[in-house]
Amino acid sequence: SFDGASFNSSNNASVVWFCQEHIPVYIREDAVIPMLARVPEDSEAPYGEMELVVHLAARIEEKVYDVDRAYQFMAEYMEDGTVMVDTDLPVGRILLCMAHRPAAVTVNGRAASIEEGSAVYMVMCKEEM
Fold this sequence. Notes:
Radius of gyration: 14 Å
Structural class: mainly beta
Distance between the termini: 16 Å
Number of strands: 12
């Protein structure tokens, strides 16, 4: 199960604790932090599967750079409470920090499952085998 918690600060940033390691992460509002799901054996290799920490209030549109290319990331909190994510990053899961539970999440046009953990919601981007 997912063990997550978040605490808001006065400057629209959050400290998010996630995973069983309880690693504190400081993230500003409408920002994304891409993290590797596992450390690659070759530091020059392209990114493997990513885990994204996202603090979404309205809309995020960013580029994430790798050694030899740039990836696109876009996330938007829609008026109906749905979160829409579009990215060409190889994403396995998203840790979504929001004030309210999203009504639904779509990743690249496909519905994604949501697991709740305090104010952090884990979004599974791939079907579990």
